Amino acid sequence: MKQERIYYKDVIALGFTETQSDDSVYLQQYGFPYCIVEKELTPTVHLEWTKETGFCSKITIDNKEDGNIIEKVEVKNLGELKRIVEEYENKIGLLPCPFCGGKCETEKSESGDNPTTYYRVNCENEHSLDWWEEDEQIAIQVWNKRPSKQ
Ligand SMILES: [Zn+2]
Question: Cα of 136 to ligand 1 centre, how many Å?
Answer without folding.
Answer: 19
